[in-house]
């Protein structure tokens, strides 16, 4: 269910004549094997990628399968990024958790264990999905690190609430209701802010569930750069009440022109620019503990456009997160 990344996986352009100045991510990233006892991160700033290779959530949610290839495509899209990280920063690839035999529940538990191993050893964790069922596994790892008196804030860039019932079975449509119920059972608050919601993409039932659980949200049409001050204000108010933030980026929040490679593309989805600006706000708070990028379906992508968008957002996340 877990495999470390094989040497040679990260490959790309080499500017040999430029020496250290020509360095790219594939030449700087270090492989981390989580089957062995995890050692504390030695670098001041250690950022680790962990893949969740899973189609089962999307399959159960009547979606279009292919998210299992998400981590592979995101790594490829990141490999040739120019290296501009400070000397105190180290970048790691901690391998992949696989969903086997359609056993989503077990795969999520395994993901939680690996996330916990990374966070407990001071790695800043970035999970590469997988469908949005990735979020519940990610959360299972985060919650073990969360002191009882700390408020967890969840910020989800998504066209969808993903608050579907999991009574029959969990899926990519249910992770945030699972998280909510888990937090509430533990006498904690469910603080959930969804950015980029499509009214046409969520039934009345989902809006009612969002209301019942006190979820806050911004509709996709309001996610515009001209509306930045109002968005910033809302975000800052949310962040101010939280101690720790978990951020999830569902690539289907973006307009299909930018993100065709997802199970449920949004023709009127948001522009990447506003997400980038808001991500910068979030990271600069210094409260972000973990982040994931989910729902990339490389089989439906066009010229790796969606993979490159996810990867480029991660470039900026890594660049900024390593400095806070
Ligand atoms: N991960 C969640 N996905 C959406 C899919 C919507 C659709 O297929 O149209 C959801 O469940 O709401
Ligand atoms: Mn989602
Ligand atoms: Mn979505």
UniProtKB/TrEMBL annotation:
Recorded superkingdom: Bacteria
GO molecular function: agmatinase activity; formimidoylglutamase activity; manganese ion binding
Binding locations of Mn(2+) 2: 158, 160, 250, 252
Entry's cofactor comment: Binds 2 manganese ions per subunit.
Metabolic or biological pathway, per its Swiss-Prot or TrEMBL entry: Amino-acid degradation; L-histidine degradation into L-glutamate; L-glutamate from N-formimidoyl-L-glutamate (hydrolase route): step 1/1
Stated name of the protein: Formimidoylglutamase
Record-stated family: Belongs to the arginase family.
GO biological process, one term: L-histidine catabolic process to glutamate and formate
PANTHER family noted in UniProt: ARGINASE/AGMATINASE (PTHR11358), FORMIMIDOYLGLUTAMASE (PTHR11358:SF35)
Names of required cofactors: Mn(2+)
Alphabetical UniProt keywords: Histidine metabolism, Hydrolase, Manganese, Metal-binding
Described purpose of this protein according to its UniProt entry: Catalyzes the conversion of N-formimidoyl-L-glutamate to L-glutamate and formamide.
Reactions catalysed: N-formimidoyl-L-glutamate + H2O = formamide + L-glutamate
Organism, as annotated: Pontibacter lucknowensis
InterPro entries reported in the protein's UniProt record: HutG, Ureohydrolase, Ureohydrolase_dom_sf, Ureohydrolase_Mn_BS
EC number: 3.5.3.8
Top-rank EC class of the record's enzyme: hydrolase
Binding residues for Mn(2+) 1: 132, 158, 160, 162, 250, 252
């Amino acid at each position: 269910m877990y495999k470390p990344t094989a040497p040679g996986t990260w490959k790309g352009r080499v500017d040999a004549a430029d020496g250290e100045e020509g360095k790219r991510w594939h030449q700087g990233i270090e492989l981390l094997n989580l089957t062995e006892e995890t050692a504390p991160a030695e670098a001041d700033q250690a950022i680790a990628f962990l893949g969740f290779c899973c189609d089962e959530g999307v399959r159960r949610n009547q979606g279009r399968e292919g998210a299992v290839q998400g981590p592979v495509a995101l790594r490829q899209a990141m490999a040739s990024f120019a290296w501009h990280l400070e000397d105190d920063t180290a970048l790691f690839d901690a391998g992949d958790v696989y969903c086997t035999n359609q056993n989503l529940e077990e795969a999520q538990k395994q993901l939680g264990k690996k996330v916990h191993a990374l966070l407990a050893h001071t790695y800043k964790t970035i999970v590469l999905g997988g469908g949005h069922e990735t979020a519940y596994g990610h959360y299972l790892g985060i919650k073990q690190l969360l002191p009882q008196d700390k408020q967890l804030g969840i910020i989800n860039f998504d066209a969808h609430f993903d608050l579907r019932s999991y009574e029959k079975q969990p899926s990519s449509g249910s992770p945030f209701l699972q998280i909510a119920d888990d937090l509430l059972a533990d006498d904690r608050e469910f603080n959930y802010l969804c950015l980029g919601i499509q009214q046409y993409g969520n039934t009345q039932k989902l809006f009612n569930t969002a209301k019942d659980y006190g979820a806050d949200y911004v509709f996709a049409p309001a996610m515009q750069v001209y509306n930045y001050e109002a968005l910033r204000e809302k975000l800052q108010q949310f962040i101010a009440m939280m101690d720790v933030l978990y951020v999830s980026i569902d690539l289907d929040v973006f307009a299909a022109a930018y993100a065709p490679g997802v199970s449920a593309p949004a023709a009127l989805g948001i522009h990447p620019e506003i997400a980038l600006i808001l991500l910068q706000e979030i990271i600069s708070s210094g409260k972000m503990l973990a982040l994931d990028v989910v729902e990339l379906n490389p089989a439906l992508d066009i010229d790796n456009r969606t993979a490159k968008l996810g990867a480029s957002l991660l470039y900026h996340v890594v660049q900024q997160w390593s400095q806070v």
